[in-house]
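Hi support team,

I've been running sequence recovery on a batch of backbones for a student project. Most finish fine, but this one hangs at about 90% for roughly twenty minutes before it completes. I'm not sure whether the input is malformed or the queue is just slow. I've pasted the structure tokens below so you can try to reproduce it. Let me know if you need the job ID as well.

Thanks,
M.K.
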């Protein structure tokens, strides 16, 4: 019978006040054992060398390597030679990662969604590799974040959240600047996702997204579906429904106006799609959320 992989619980690693960000420094990283967790991690390699294993695959690590681990992905470190790293534990469901124009950054989608999904296929070659200047700037953000979390002064939640968003945005920008060929491939899909996030209220066709990606139609669809677990057009509809639900909760605009605001040209089609995704009509949803 295969051995169960332990899952690290939020209650054991996060502060009792429930704030969804923790900074853990490992200098050096000690043997831990293969594990999963109920949260996500940003891992920043700050020194030494080692091997990152995921249960099936293993990847060499060097200073500057930066990557994201989802909670359901088992992992561990082996063959550590003075390996030091910083883990930023966070619960993505409790952070405002849709704030501002973060979702419009192709590097954000590449680093936080696409690279983890394609890690096995790319053999970790599409990871973010920070240069020395980028690593120094990253560590400045981490230090500011760590200080806020340690002191927990009045207003620390706001300051820590803003610093975390600055860090995430900076790393996303670093990914956009990468010259790694495998990373560039992920950025093509990420550009299409970013286009949807920025322009969901306008007409967008599959041909538009294929052109933005610079890939063949067949390869784009296969890669997008393999990463996002849905088709490009279904993803576009999901984004539109998500924004429509926000407007239904927060405004008194008519359902027809909201349908047009988020990119639907037919309010009846909008209502059908809304019910398909959320199990309620727009009118029922608004009534339930008020």
């Amino acid at each position: 019978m295969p051995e169960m992989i332990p899952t690290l619980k939020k209650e054991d690693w996060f502060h009792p006040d429930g704030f969804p960000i923790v900074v853990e420094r490992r200098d050096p990283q000690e043997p831990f054992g293969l594990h999963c967790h109920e949260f996500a991690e940003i891992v920043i390699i700050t020194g030494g060398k080692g091997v990152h294993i995921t249960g099936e695959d293993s990847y060499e690590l060097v200073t500057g390597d930066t990557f994201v681990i989802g909670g359901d992905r088992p992992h561990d470190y082996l063959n550590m030679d003075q390996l030091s790293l910083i883990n930023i534990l966070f619960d993505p469901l409790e952070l405002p990662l849709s704030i501002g124009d973060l979702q419009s950054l192709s590097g954000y989608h590449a680093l936080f969604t696409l690279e983890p999904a394609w890690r096995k296929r790319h053999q970790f070659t599409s990871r973010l590799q920070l240069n020395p200047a980028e690593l120094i700037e990253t560590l400045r953000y981490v230090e500011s974040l760590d200080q806020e979390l340690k002191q927990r002064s009045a207003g620390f939640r706001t300051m820590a959240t803003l610093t975390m968003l600055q860090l995430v945005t900076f790393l996303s920008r670093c990914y956009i600047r990468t010259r790694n060929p495998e990373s560039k491939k992920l950025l093509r899909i990420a550009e299409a996702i970013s286009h949807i996030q920025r322009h969901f209220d306008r007409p967008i066709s599959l041909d538009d997204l294929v052109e933005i990606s610079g890939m063949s139609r067949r390869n784009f669809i296969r890669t997008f579906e393999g990463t996002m677990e849905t088709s490009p057009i279904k993803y576009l509809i999901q984004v539109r429904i998500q924004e429509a639900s926000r407007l239904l909760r927060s405004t008194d605009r008519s359902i027809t106006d909201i349908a047009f605001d988020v990119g639907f040209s037919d309010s009846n089609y909008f209502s059908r799609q809304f019910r398909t995704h959320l199990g309620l009509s727009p009118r029922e949803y608004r009534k339930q959320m008020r």
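--
Follow-up from support: It reproduced on our side and the slowdown came from queue contention, not your input. The beta strands are 7-8, 21-26, 36-37, 40-53, 58-61, 65-69, 76-90, 128-129. No action needed from you.
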